[in-house]
């Protein structure tokens, strides 16, 4: 058997893929540098129990797989600093009626760089590029060091001098949202729009009338059905330019293409937009304010489907928070990724000084039913806001509880199947799980059921603000 037979949609030619039959005990650096290189770059998948080049499955028995995973974790903990963000899971398969496992290590781009490999007291820094792992260059180390200090892109000083005549679009935008008031030089200086020598900060350059770079790119698409994979693209537009123009272009694109309907009241009619204007505007502003401007070659994605609008911004939640999916938008606490850009948008009165704007979105959808509730989900490299189409009666239908099969969990309980099914499509809080099961939020539920499922790799835990969420690991189960 081969890897592509048990992993759906795997891209074997992807330069973010590496396989090892076994972890070489005699050459630990040989495979540890791959993990470090993935973390210092943009992440990747590392499979153990799979033959290199051919991708033939070698596999392990259950006990051997557990030992190999423990050895892997021990070596990573001993030699890599700081420990990379990873998810280690078992992938089960059968051959000749015998149960076998391979180990999948998903390495995410590190939030703190560089990841240093230290072996025999000798430190080294590696980078993954074009399918190979090599020593990082001087320039790459400097770039990683800048990021590791949590220096925000927008507050670094550029080499462009401030010219008050080059921000006419920003001045007009400010006036339009501040009852015609003029944007004063004092306000710009208070935001550190430019430094004492007159040089603009990086974030300020993105507001220039003649900005031609790619940092602000937005791609807007309309699909004929419910997903990207199988539906026809009706239209696609790409917008570049300064931040003000991309906000305006994005709003116009959606407004020109969204659905509208009428609701009959007792003595009148009321117009309904597919996406409430304030919710739409808040979603676009949020994506612009919180995108990761370090990520070159990326765009904000605005995708219109038959039942919803998705606004995806490059970069996960700032400082690493991630979850599968949540409707609790009000519980998301804002952490600024871009201080200057946020300050400018706040001054323009299109963004709150504190908060994400999600409260306004919730308010706009307060009268909607369960299938029309907005939600957000994120990963390590993007976050997405989903606004259901209020003119589509069926709403967004992707929250059903599936039926699963899985290898019995060691020390498992009779609640395991219900918990895994409930958490398959959506990350859940313990209180939500307890309510679904009809049991109390007890120590038994938290430790013996949920804790045991997490310990054995069936559930993964993530944190959003102060709340903990649990989501089923897809590789640990099978949909019936």
Report on this model:
The chain has helices spanning 28-40, 62-79, 138-148, 168-176, 185-190, 202-205, 243-257, 277-290, 339-347, 358-364, 416-422, 430-437, 443-455, and strands spanning 17-20, 44-48, 80-81, 86-95, 98-107, 116-119, 122-129, 132-135, 157-161, 199-201, 218-223, 233-239, 260-264, 269-273, 300-304, 308-314, 375-378, 382-388, 404-405, 459-464, 467-472, 478-479. By secondary structure, it is of the alpha+beta class. It folds into four domains: 3-148, Methyltransferase, Cobalt-precorrin-4 Transmethylase, Domain 2 (2-Layer Sandwich); 153-205, no CATH class; 218-388, Heat Shock Protein 90 (2-Layer Sandwich), CATH 3.30.565; 404-479, Arc Repressor Mutant, subunit A (Orthogonal Bundle). The strands form seven sheets. A six-stranded mixed beta sheet has the order 12-11-15-16-18-17, with helices on one face. The longest helix is centred in the first third of the chain and has 18 residues, at 62-79. The radius of gyration is 25 Å and the shape is globular. The model has no long low-confidence stretch (mean pLDDT 86).
Mean pLDDT: 86
Going across the biggest sheet, name each strand in turn: 12-11-15-16-18-17
CATH class of the largest domain: Alpha Beta
Task: Specify the structural class.
Answer: alpha+beta
Uncertain runs: none
For the record, the CATH architecture of the largest domain stands as 2-Layer Sandwich
| β-strand amount | 15-25%
What CATH calls the topology of the largest domain is: Heat Shock Protein 90
Q: Find the count of extended strands (DSSP E, 2+ residues).
A: 22
Largest sheet: 6 strands, mixed
Radius of gyration (CA) equals 25 Å
Terminus-to-terminus distance: 22 Å
Instruction: Categorize the overall geometry.
Output: globular
The amount of helix comes to 25-40%
Q: Helix count?
A: 13
How many structural domains in the coordinates?
4
């Amino acid at each position: 058997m081969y890897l592509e037979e048990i992993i759906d949609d795997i891209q074997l030619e992807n330069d973010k893929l590496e396989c090892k039959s076994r972890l070489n005990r005699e050459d630990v650096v040989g495979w540890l540098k791959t993990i470090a290189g993935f973390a210092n770059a943009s992440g990747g998948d590392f499979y153990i129990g799979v033959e290199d080049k051919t991708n033939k499955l070698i596999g392990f028995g259950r006990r051997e797989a557990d030992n190999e995973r423990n050895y892997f974790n021990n070596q990573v903990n001993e030699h890599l600093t700081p420990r990379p963000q990873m998810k280690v899971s078992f992938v089960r398969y059968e051959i000749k009626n015998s149960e076998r496992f391979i180990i999948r290590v998903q390495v995410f781009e590190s939030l703190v760089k560089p990841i240093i490999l230290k072996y025999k007291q000798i430190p080294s820094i590696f980078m993954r590029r074009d399918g190979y792992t090599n020593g990082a260059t001087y320039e790459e180390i400097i770039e990683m060091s800048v990021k590791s200090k949590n220096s925000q892109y927008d507050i670094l000083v550029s080499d462009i001098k401030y010219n008050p005549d080059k921000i006419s679009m920003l001045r007009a935008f400010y006036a339009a949202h501040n009852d015609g008031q003029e944007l004063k030089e004092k306000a710009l200086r208070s935001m550190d729009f430019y430094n004492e020598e007159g040089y603009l900060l990086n974030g300020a350059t993105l507001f220039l009338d003649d900005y031609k770079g790619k940092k602000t790119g937005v791609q807007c698409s309309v699909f004929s059905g419910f997903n990207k994979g199988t539906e026809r693209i009706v239209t696609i537009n790409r917008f570049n330019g300064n931040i003000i123009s991309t906000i305006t272009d994005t709003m116009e694109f959606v407004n020109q293409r969204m659905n509208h309907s009428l609701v009959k009241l007792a003595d009148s009619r009321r117009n309904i937009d597919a996406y409430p204007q304030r919710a739409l505007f808040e979603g676009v502003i949020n994506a612009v304010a919180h995108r990761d401007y370090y990520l070159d070659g990326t765009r904000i994605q605005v995708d219109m489907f038959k039942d919803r609008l998705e606004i995806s911004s490059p970069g996960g939640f700032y400082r690493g928070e991630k979850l599968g999916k949540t409707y609790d938008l009000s519980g998301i606490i804002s952490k600024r990724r871009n201080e200057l850009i946020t300050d400018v948008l706040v001054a323009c009165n299109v963004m709150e000084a504190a908060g994400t704007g999600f409260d306004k979105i919730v308010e706009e959808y307060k009268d909607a039913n369960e299938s029309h509730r907005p939600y957000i989900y994120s990963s390590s490299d993007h976050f997405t806001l989903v606004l259901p189409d209020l003119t589509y009666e069926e709403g967004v239908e992707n929250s059903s509880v599936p039926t699963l099969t899985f290898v019995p969990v060691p020390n498992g309980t009779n609640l395991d199947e219900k918990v895994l099914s409930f958490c398959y499509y959506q990350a859940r809080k313990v209180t939500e799980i307890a309510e679904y099961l009809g049991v109390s939020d007890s120590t038994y539920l938290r430790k013996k059921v949920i804790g045991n499922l997490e310990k054995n790799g069936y559930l993964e835990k993530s944190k959003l603000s102060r709340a903990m969420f649990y989501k089923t690991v897809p590789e640990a189960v099978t949909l019936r």
